[in-house]
Amino acid sequence: MAAAKKAVLGPLVGAVDQGTSSTRFLVFNSKTAELLSHHQVEIKQEFPREGWVEQDPKEILQSVYECIEKTCEKLGQLNIDISNIKAIGVSNQRETTVVWDKLTGEPLYNAVAAPVSPGPSDPVAVVPSGSSVPAAGTSSVWLDLRTQSTVENLSKRIPGNNNFVKSKTGLPLSTYFSAVKLRWLLDNVRKVQRAVEEDRALFGTIDSWLIWSLTGGANGGVHCTDVTNASRTMLFNIHSLEWDKELCEFFEIPMKILPNVRSSSEIYGLMKISHSLKAGALEGVPISGCLGDQSAALVGQMCFQDGQAKNTYGTGCFLLCNTGRKCVFSEHGLLTTVAYKLGRDKPVYYALEGSVAIAGAVIRWLRDNLGIIQTSEEIEKLAKEVGTSYGCYFVPAFSGLYAPYWEPSARGIICGLTQFTNKCHIAFAALEAVCFQTREILDAMNRDCGIPLSHLQVDGGMTNNKILMQLQADILYIPVVKPSMPETTALGAAMAAGAAEGVGVWSLEPEDLSAVTMERFEPQINAEESEIRYSTWKKAVMKSVGWVTTQSSESGDPSIFCSLPLGFFIVSSMVMLIGARYISGIP
Q: What residues does the Carbohydrate kinase FGGY N-terminal domain cover (predicted)?
């Protein structure tokens, strides 16, 4: 029976899915795209100072090995022979920056993170300030804001009519991307400076750190990245597909520390045993796929045609639209990025990307800050009880408005309240807010591309909420399509790995791609009602703008002299009081 089961399975492909909060390893059947087994390990974020977000690269690497070993054990329990695993793909959180010592394999600092989307920052945990520089052995994650002053200084050097950074990279100058994090490390961490001087330093995003470590590390590890991750560094020319000398000079980044840029689907190296972690179940298996997480989801959703788009619903939302083999530069606040390049000799495909900063985060806010739900899953039950927001609108601009507004003065509001409004209506309004924000990104995308989307493909944890998915269809007024197999990010990495030259166990030809079962949500309201609700949302958004007028108004500075008129009033009052006492002869 076990032998028959093995014979049916055929070649398998594994995928490392490394995110900000957890690491997973998943194994797929390359012929059916069926998920056979997986294992997940939570990882910590560190907040050494307000606005600083870091992760330990060694903990991330250890979590990858643990997930691989545990998944292989589970496959053994299912009588599945792990020798059938023919390739491994890597999908990773993008922009997060690591610098390590190529001689010892030790990270020189924590991984530094990037914000949920470019522009104003997402709220981050505030902790008491620690030492000025955290201990070595961590990395800079994508939520991190420490580079704001670096960005401000760099922006002064860009001529107003010649933004060569954006024209070469498709990206705005922002704390979000890796170049400014790397610049901060070079300016502030002596260990990094010394390693660069002594030609010991290597830089990479999480994919580079993992591939280098998994293929041998200090003993012959392969230092590379793929075009999708390189395109998020702000050092990569998305037209020539090379590190750009002018950009590296602008950011003062030594090119010798950068990884080699490869396609998203080719053999980079072979898995090696980790003696220190006692891990080596997949020794000799090629690592042959690499994609940033949002590009991986685009591939996993099989958005291979111009104009196809997917939206991933997580803490925030990431909406990517395949623009084919041409770069489309947005006039509506979106980013131009590399979608994928599935082979050394295959063409590169581009995408427009828009981000919603607060999606799942608003549900957590209702749970943790207001306490109107105990678990995130309860939001669907509350919303279902009323089936309407009863005119209540929730704009979760907790740290400003993102694309397409880019308005840092905005703050969150709940408006349209009446005596009848209860927590169920607020819960419904919170779900609607996610959908309205997605529509704003989609409208911007439609204007940039010139071809309206006929449907939206979705994935991510929040898509399990059927009320949310139906609301999304109603508010977009196009069908929303959700695959029955939700692990699209890992699937995309597995597809790239299995399709690589020299592996060839996963065909990406349209006629060979497995038909995926889809759940489809059609609009259930008329177009006029959809437009009325959307225009009322826009009215609410305008009400949220202008709440923050100065930095000091939010800083909570207790000094009475932070207000100059108030200071004059108090000082003059004291002078008058003293003068009156003197004139009246009061001792």
A: 13-112, 141-300
